Known about the structure:
Belongs to the methylthiotransferase family. MiaB subfamily. InterPro entries: Elp3/MiaA/NifB-like_rSAM, Methylthiotransferase, Methylthiotransferase_CS, Methylthiotransferase_N, Methylthiotransferase_N_sf, MiaB_methiolase, rSAM, rSAM_horseshoe. This protein has helices at residues 16-31, 55-66, 82-88, 91-95, 111-119, 133-136, 165-168, 177-189, 212-219, 240-248, 265-270, 277-290, 309-322, 349-373, 437-441; strands at residues 7-12, 35-36, 45-50, 77-81, 101-103, 125-126, 147-151, 153-154, 173-174, 194-198, 206-207, 210-211, 227-231, 255-257, 295-302, 326-331, 378-386, 392-396, 402-406, 414-422, 426-431. The radius of gyration is 23 Å and the shape is globular. 34% of the residues lie in helices and 22% in strands. Strands 2-1-3-4-5-6 form a six-stranded parallel β-sheet, sandwiched between helices. A five-stranded mixed beta barrel has the order 17-18-19-21-20. The chain folds into three domains: 7-126, Rossmann fold (3-Layer(aba) Sandwich), CATH 3.40.50.12160; 133-373, tm_1862 like domain (pyruvate-formate lyase- activating enzyme), CATH 3.80.30.20; 378-440, CATH 2.40.50.140. The longest helix has 25 residues, at 349-373. The chain has 445 residues and is an alpha/beta fold. Helix 9 (212-219) packs parallel to helix 10 and helix 10 (240-248) packs parallel to helix 12 (277-290). The structure holds S-adenosyl-L-homocysteine (SAH), iron/sulfur cluster and FE3-S4 cluster (F3S). FE3-S4 cluster (F3S) binds next to helix 1, helix 3 and helix 7.
Amino acid sequence: MTDSPKTFRVKSFGCQMNAYDGERMAELLGAQGLTPVADNEDADLVVLNTCHIREKAAEKAYSDIGRLKREDGSRPMIALAGCVAQAEGAEAKARSQMIDIVVGPQAYHRLPEMVADVSAGKRPVDTDMPALSKFGALPARRKVGASAFLTVQEGCDKFCTYCVVPYTRGAEISRPFADIETEARSLVEGGAREITLLGQNVNAWEGTCGGLDGLIRAIARIDGLERIRYTTSHPADMSDALIAAHGEVEKLMPYLHLPVQSGSDRILKAMNRSHSAESYLRTIEKVRAARPDIAISGDFIVGFPGESEEDFTQTLSIIDAVGYASAYSFKYSARPGTPAAVMGDQISREIMEERLAKLQERIIKHQLAFNRSKVGIDTQIMIDRKGRAAGQMVGKSPWLQSVHVETDAPIGAMLDVTLTSAGPNSLGGALRTAPALSSVEGVAA
Ligand code: SAH
Ligand code: SF4
Ligand code: F3S
């Protein structure tokens, strides 16, 4: 028998879908009367909401569990949640005796029951994937920050040969339109001014209002909501209707994260990506025709099995052809159970590191060029954190750039600024105010 926990901490790793799930778990535990705390040391229950995408991410979960042991030999109740929990199920309990609960991404609405089971001396595991039942069982959204996540689609049917997501998150499912609209309205009532629609393949969303474009148009009608974003998209699901929305819906921000992974058709085929370098470039061209100022972001994997110098050179070429505003890049990580893990010609760590460094250098060059192209522009930023210097705050531009400004405006404020300087990772801005009369007329004191 263990005492029922009174305090808890949820720690999320990995993608935004996990961050969203982490928030919902915290809301659920809060609704049960548990109090959130900021430190593991103060928590009676620690939920590790894990990521399985690369080897390092999964190993991190187990080393974090080890560190939860306290100096006096005690430890909190520990729930392993997220994609490592889904992938390893009951085996996780064998790997670490410290794990009390194993709960997958589709089962976490059952956390309170499972916590009660632990108090009764059990070590429960639930990695079932009932279609969407968790959403109906979660408490309504209440107080949220100015920028909120909203999961609208889950799972993936694409089966890229390197990726664990189709196994940890299951088949593609779209949440019903009415549920999403209700959640979006309660987020806006709770203080959100920006909503990011989330899904492993968010642009495959379908519902009674059509595709993702229809959903965006419907959400855009909510008063008080000012910015809409969505992520992550698959190039094969980038419909003409969604592209058109980028040119027509004012609240839809000019930013598109569209992972390409490689610029070589041979590698794309081995990855089972279902797009070619050329079809990807054609999509980008259409998006830019609809919204010329759009910021394009991407994901890259270097060192996929069989990747030659020539293949890698083609990846550098597609980076130049697109001119990315930002990008995430990774060394290929062989994941057990995926087809690529058993492919021949695995690439050495040294070559991967060399290619990653070259690729990142190329991306930073384009990032800097993109940021510089915005200097002199008047725009709006949404404050999302404090800056390093006193009196400085950092906000997001429509293109998702970080902009530093001198202001005491609070988090969530929308400010009119002129972008005044640019580095590779952020810009500087100055508040835009109406010119004072004296300076206009040049009146001397
Ligand atoms: N659904 C999204 C995101 C998937 S995970 C998509 O299709 O783009 C985010 C990124 O992690 C992927 O885009 C890919 O670049 C990277 N990734 C996935 N599996 C990986 C692996 N085994 N090794 C290295 N990077 C990987
Ligand atoms: Fe993974 Fe590919 Fe699905 Fe993205 S589209 S989640 S990379 S299988
Ligand atoms: Fe990681 Fe699972 Fe997201 S593996 S990237 S947390 S879907």
